[in-house]
Amino acid sequence: MNRAAPAEGSGSLLPAGVDTPAYVYDLAEVRANAGRLRSALPEPSRLYYSLKANPHPEVLRTLRASGVLAEVCSPGELDSAIAAGWAPETLLYTGPGKRDGDVARALDAGVREFSVDSPTALDQLDRLAAEQRVGVRVLLRVNDDQPVPGQALAMTGVPSPFGVDAAWVRTQPALFAHRPHVEVVGLHLYMGTNLETVEALLAQFTRSVRTFAALASVLRGEGVELRVLDLGGGFGAPFATAGAALDLTSLAEPLAGMLDAELPGWRVGAPSVVFESGRYLVGTAGTLVTTVLEAKTSQGREIVVLDSGINHLGGMSGLRRLPPLTPHLDPPAGASFSGPELVETIVCGPLCTPLDTWNRRARLPRLTPGDRLTVPNVGAYGLYASLVAFLGHPLPAELVVDSSRPGEPPVHLSRLALVRGTA
Fold first, then answer.
1. Per-residue pLDDT tens over the stretch 78-100
2. Domain limits at 92?
3. Are residues 243 and 302 in the same domain?
4. How far apart are CA 333 and CA 93, in angstroms?
5. Residue 237, C-beta contacts closer than 8 angstroms, at least 6 positions apart
6. Can you spell out the DSSP letters for 206-239?
């Protein structure tokens, strides 16, 4: 199992005939991550996978077989989830802005549970559900009053398109009551992403639970009885750097104890508790393999140009705190880099823009064209969060393996392609 391992020996990631750049996804690691996360969450609870992290079909099928549900936020993700085998009525459709056509399409496909971010979204869903003569369930996403410390990317407590401010619900609860075709059944509180300690997770979940209890009391006066609490996630995992995902073994007991104290009926579904994850489930299951195209000295600095750049990894501006990417060396067959001098190197991609730079101060051996590098822990927000159409280079191959079955051929090999159709 390739769990954020250094590059030594990683040449075996790509079988003969598979060229770089290439993403390699290990299904054994996906299954292991699902098991680790499930064991850290209290029972009974449900776990959703956020398809935005990585919608590769084999990854999706593996997660569905592991008992994970699917959370989608676009027509493309809806199609991918259904193709992977999830029943439409089990899906949670989220997103801060939804077009009428997309909502109508989801309803027509059989989706019956949505997360909404405003009274306008409640009215939109009610209108479109009425046109199809169906009823739907809604989780009201809430932007809490303040963020919880320890978040890599705050999703609440700041001005945000995600959710309605908790104060708005408290002062005008009638705006968030049922509609004729919409039943408000719960709250969705996703406060932040990629938390790096169990203590930060517990602090986030505790605040969310208390907000839920307070708003449930307010909404009860409008005839709304909340019976679902979506606590989101934020389970930390490394991105494009060596290391392992956050150890969650110490989370289960205090989390269950907190829920017992704050929501005594949660074990019998009053309310039922839901969690979400993308990064933790698939982040450590992916590695990007790339090749040095050019190596030179410019103005006294070492520079290498790779066949992969921000069009394949690291191009998503919304990550905001994206760390510098420091690839690991993958020695060619017969070569040894066990003791080379490390030099400060500017690592660039092949795009015709100075923005295509992964790291300006990477400590790497002196490289030559043909040397291979690997970037670990890019199974989440890798290819699918990149500038894939920028400058028109081919997309990387995607190789799916299962390290629990050594000696067997790869599970899947394919390459995405952008195709222009008629509008």
1. 999 999 999 999 999 999 999 99
2. 27-282
3. no
4. 47
5. 194, 245, 246, 279, 280, 283, 284, 377, 380
6. HHHHHHHHHHHHHHHTTT----EEE----B---S
